[in-house]
Amino acid sequence: MDVIVGAVGVAVGGIFGFLWAKYRVRMARTNAESTAEGMLARARVEAQELLSRGEDEARAKADAYREREDAALEHRRIELKSSEERLSQREQTLEQRAANLAQREQILIRRENETTVLQAETGKLREQARSELERLAGFDANAAKADLLHQVEDEARREAMVLVRDMEIRAREEADRRARRILATAIQRLSSEVVTESTVSVVELPSDEMKGRIIGREGRNIRAFEAITGVNLIVDDTPEAVSVSSFDPVRREVARLALEHLVQDGRIHPASSEEMFEKA
């Protein structure tokens, strides 16, 4: 009996549990469908809002683009109108200039014709006047022409002679000027060498130590030598040599001989300089 009751209870419990689980599955499905429908509805609303917003933005951009294009077209229309007006003014100006040129051309043609007629009449009058002068003067035009040509030839010959003489004078002056320029250049190039050769004599020394002895203490010896001989004694970096400089060749040669005697003697001081100068 207890077994039957227990079996019945288990069966009832199992049926109840099955029904409860089925109920929960149905409720979950209903909730899921409701949630999906809500999400779908919201998605539709958001999509509709996005679509509406996109249409508004597109419409606004299209309106702005249309306004810019309209403004650009209006600006171009104004520029084209201005260009057309300028072209029209230029055409009018060119037409006016063409009319003026045509009028001037007609005036020039008329004046040219008048000038031609006047030249012809002038030629006739000149011929008549020449014939009348020939008749009154009693000479032929050909003879007068020959005489005139002879006079012109003589005058041209005299002018040619004067021109040739002037050309010779100018050529001589130019030659003299060029010769002076060449001589001046040569003198400038060679004067320093010639002056050096004619004003300086070189005295050989046995060694460079002799230069110090020639100069002396505080330059005493060289100053005494220059004062006695009246020349300039040049002691420079030239090895084993000093230079005697003077424009007077006699003084320079005497000083050179005196200095050579001093170098050979070896005693260089003011008294020996005066002695060697007297000897030289």
Summarize this structure briefly.
Helix content is 85%, strand content 5%. By secondary structure, the protein is mainly α.
Could you explain how this protein is built, in words?
There is one protein chain. The protein has a domain at 197-279: K Homology domain, type 1 (Ribosomal Protein S8, Chain: A, domain 1). Helices cover 85% and strands 5% of the residues. It has helices at residues 2-137, 141-199, 209-215, 220-229, 249-265, 270-279; strands spanning 200-204, 232-234, 241-245. A three-stranded antiparallel beta sheet has the order 1-3-2. Helix 4 runs parallel beside helix 6 and helix 5 packs across helix 6.
Strands in their spatial order, largest beta sheet: 1-3-2
The number of helical elements comes to 6
User: Any idea what the radius of gyration is?
Assistant: 67 Å
Question: Which structural class do you get from the secondary structure elements?
Answer: mainly alpha
Low-confidence stretches: 190-197
CATH top-level class of the domain at 197-279: Alpha Beta
Estimated helix fraction: over 70%
Strand content: under 5%
Can you identify the CATH superfamily of the domain at 197-279? K Homology domain, type 1
| Average pLDDT level | 79
Terminal Cα span: 183 Å
Shape: flat
CATH-scheme architecture of the domain at 197-279: 2-Layer Sandwich
CATH topology of the domain at 197-279: Ribosomal Protein S8, Chain: A, domain 1
Order of helices and strands: HHEHHEEHH
